[in-house]
Amino acid sequence: MLGKIKQDLQQNLFKTRLTELINMDHPLVKLAHEISWDKIEAEFEGLFSKEGRPSI
What we know:
Order of helices and strands: HHH
Largest sheet: none
Structural class: mainly alpha
Radius of gyration: 15 Å
Strand content: under 5%
Helix content: 25-40%
């Protein structure tokens, strides 16, 4: 089962945001903004079961 990421608008005092740890000017970070993640998810969602535990 394909899981969905829940958006948490409240910051956690003990967790650091990934954007604060990595170099946002890195080429792979820039490439990630150019990828159509919705199209990739649509392409692969048929490979996940509709039942059972969600993916992580």
